[in-house]
Design brief:
alpha/beta; Flavocytochrome C3, Chain A, domain 1; four-stranded mixed sheet; 15% strand; globular
């Protein structure tokens, strides 16, 4: 990662590399026997395109490249087919009109703008909404088994804040089914893949990338990737919070940190979506704390009740009820708990027992199975839920037709980027973005390749940078203090939950930044257990990236002195027209810098749809 002038920021992003020597002998290695220069033993891998991340976004980019005759290399931190996409249960949006023929792409775009509080990138939204009907049909061709209506059409359900039934689904395992379908297509096309690989640095001079450095998490072997084109599809950063809907070892800011320190810009980091319904309570156990209870439960008619048996959303949103925007529902639950109307576990009840039991089993099979394994029959008793950090609208600032980041050869896609969702994501749009924009990025990268990309160069300077990184990684394993990486990550999660959670204010954010500096000081006493293949080492590398993104997010949240979407300031509770701007974060000579950028306007068709004022009629479900 590029050295940063600001000392406190460098401590967060680069501390584990502090002992790396600068005068490493320069030499250009070729693929073959492992190389070493006093650091981690490594091999050189050459590829025309390196895709970092193997979820739906990375897979869709890879498919487009392969169909264009390019052999990219896809790498993932887990086994092939095991990515966070599988956790997106409820569905994927496309204006097919299966049940509501009046729906069209412009209304889909208008709903997305309204949910995003008009901070969305207009081109990104319109491209996603226009592309999605074809992307759904494409997935069908590749074998995705969408639920069907009695007439054989792709079935669609309500999701929060959508004007029509637009969310296509496979029961409540849509993300899993989508990833299986995409991975099946990837395998049919024989796309090269390496699993259990972690990238720790992009080789960049701030103007262009010449490759990447990482290691094999199973063997401990270092990897130097020679390539002129890197696509970041590494997810978001919601797992920085102590209650979140991800696994602990994903969505921890890898993509954003790598991009920032390669010279790219980040945008809208203050917008973190807290899903209203995460599992909570001793009954479920610590393993399940924060895990998502899909919005499909509310989309199929699930109701929220406080401890007094009151259906409290009638107070907060009498028209849209449980299917109002996620930020509205999450704040409502938080208020019920704060005002002592929550359960003993600090949550509320989500109840779908009024629906026919067989219908619930058919539409929500994964939820039924999960809760049944915990001794709860959701067809007969309610679930206990509370808000959980779920999705990050902010990320890398890109051109949505190309995926370009402003650093030559570096692209990004999926939850790694910002723009489609604005200040709050419309449910069902995360999976939509992965395949809609993923196809466009793959198409552009394929068109940008030249013959030189088959055998890319790595300059002497970049080779030296890579070897310094390998040496620093080796030295990280020798850390023998008293503080564990996991312990620091847990403290970071508590810090962000307490000071940059659902409700924020100036004093809390400043206190969070002060605590972040204190947490960084403790890295000097870090202890890394075992070797390169250990979880301790993985979390130590995660820590450096997570601290970078955490600081950027806290500073952006402090900068935005209004409430908008998922960003709620109790000291600035109103939405201000002057704040209809994106906040862009970059690395300057004095550390992180934040600037404002105006937001464009949507095209005529979307403006017309916005003027019509389409809105969900919740009472269709009653």
């Amino acid at each position: 990662m590029t050295e940063i002038a600001n000392d406190s920021h460098r401590r967060g992003a680069d501390d584990y590399r502090a002992g790396a020597t600068a005068g490493v002998e320069n030499c250009i290695e070729t693929e073959g026997d492992p190389k070493s220069n006093g650091g981690l033993e490594y091999v050189v891998v050459t590829t025309p395109v390196l895709i970092v991340g193997a979820g739906a976004a990375g897979a869709r980019v890879a498919i487009e490249l392969a169909e264009s005759g390019v052999d990219p290399l896809v790498i993932g931190k887990r086994e092939h087919g095991d990515a966070h996409t599988t956790w997106a249960a409820g569905g994927v949006n496309a204006a097919l009109g299966s049940l509501d023929p009046a729906d069209d792409w412009a209304i889909h775009a208008a709903d997305t703008f309204n949910e995003g509080h008009h901070l969305n990138d207009p081109e990104a939204v319109e491209l996603t909404a226009q592309e999605m009907p074809d992307r759904i049909r494409e997935l069908v061709e590749w074998g995705m088994p969408f639920d069907r209506t009695d007439d054989g059409e792709i079935n669609q359900r309500y999701f929060g804040a959508q004007s029509y039934r637009r969310t296509c689904f496979v029961g409540d395992r849509t993300g899993e089914a989508m990833l299986e379908t995409l991975i099946g297509r990837v395998r049919d096309l024989e796309v090269p893949y390496r699993e259990n690989v972690m990238i720790t640095r992009l080789l960049s001079d701030g103007e262009r990338v010449d490759g990447a450095v990482g290691f094999d998490m199973e063997t401990g072997e270092g990897l130097l990737f020679r390539t002129n084109h890197v696509v970041l599809a590494a997810g978001g950063f919601s797992a920085l919070y102590h209650r979140h809907s991800s696994r602990d070892d994903e969505n921890n800011g890898d993509g954003q940190a790598l991009a920032l320190e390669a010279g790219a810009r980040l945008m809208d980091l203050e917008f973190v979506q807290f899903h209203p319904t995460g599992m909570v309570g001793e009954r479920y156990g610590e393993e399940w704390d924060g895990r998502l209870v899909t919005e499909a439960v509310r989309g199929e008619g699930g109701r929220l009740y406080n401890a007094e048996g009151e259906r409290f959303m009638e107070r907060y949103s009498p028209d849209q009820m449980e299917l109002d925007a996620r930020d509205v529902a999450a704040r409502a639950i938080a208020r019920e708990v704060r005002e002592v109307r929550g359960t003993d576990d600090g949550g509320v009840s989500l109840d779908i027992t009024h629906r026919d039991a067989e219908y619930v089993r058919e539409r929500l099979p994964s939820m039924v199975e999960r809760f049944d394994s915990l001794g709860v029959d959701i067809t007969e008793e309610p679930m206990t839920v509370a808000p959980t950090a779920h999705y990050t609208m902010g990320g890398v600032d890109i051109d949505f037709r190309t995926g370009e980041t402003g650093v030559e050869g570096l692209y990004a896609v999926g939850e790694t980027v910002a723009g489609v969702h604005g200040a709050n994501r419309l449910g069902g749009n995360s999976l939509a973005e992965t395949v809609a924009i993923g196809k466009l990025v793959g198409d552009h990268v394929a068109s940008a390749l030249t013959d030189a990309d088959e055998d890319p160069d790595v300059t002497n300077g970049q080779q030296a940078l890579a070897e310094r990184e390998f040496q620093a990684l080796r030295e990280l394993t020798a850390s023998d203090g008293n503080v564990t990486p996991m312990g620091l990550l847990e403290d970071l999660g508590d810090l962000l939950w307490d000071h940059a959670g659902i409700l924020r204010d100036d004093a809390g954010l400043r206190e969070g930044l002060a605590k972040l500096d204190a947490l960084r000081e403790r890295i000097a006493d870090l202890r890394v257990e075992s070797d390169f293949t250990s979880k301790s080492f993985e979390y130590a590398v995660d820590l450096s990236m997570s601290l970078t993104v955490a600081e950027a997010m806290l500073r952006a949240a402090l900068e935005r002195t209004e409430s908008r979407g998922a960003h709620y300031r109790t000291d600035y509770p109103e939405t201000e027209s002057d704040w209809r701007v994106n906040l862009v974060t970059a690395v300057g000579t004095d550390g992180l810098s934040i600037s404002r950028r105006g937001v464009g306007e949507p095209g005529p068709a979307v403006r017309e749809a916005l003027a019509e004022g389409y809105e969900l009629d919740y009472h269709h479900l009653e």
